[in-house]
Amino acid sequence: MILQRLAVRAANRREDARMIGVPAQAGFTLLEVLVVLVILGLLAAVVAGPQIFKYLGSAKSEAAKVQVQQISSALDLYRLEVGRYPTQEEGLEALIEAPAGLNKWNGPYLKKKESIVDPWGRVFVYRYPGEHGDFDLYTLGADNAEGGDGENKDITNW
Q1: CA end-to-end span of the chain, whole Å?
Q2: Burial status of residue 94 (CB atoms within 10 A of its CB: 0-12, 13-18, 19 or more)
Q3: Cα torsion at 68, 69, 70, 72 (round to 10°)?
């Protein structure tokens, strides 16, 4: 009995929908949905695009600062264990692989070779002895030239 009433109600709803001109199954076509998605994508690119690029540049500079601090700490630990900083010839690779002839090397002090590469894809510059301290460690920023502002600014350990 209950099932009969539910069936009658459903039939009445379909009949009511046909009377007012609404198809029983209303919805959007795939093409309509794709057009809306394309329009939303274009709006996002125009409005948010420049802001995203601004933050991306500053994010690389911030990552470089963190890397300089991390490598500097690894160099200090190397000095504590070995008794000296890596020579200019040994370079930053001495933090990853033991230089020949070192008995006190207890590394690796950095786990990956990517640790000594700046966010712009260049190996950090290491000078020993340094002009500004025991050692100089820096990257020249996005423009790979001394000086600069914003993401072109040099990131140093001094």
Answers
A1: 87
A2: buried
A3: 80
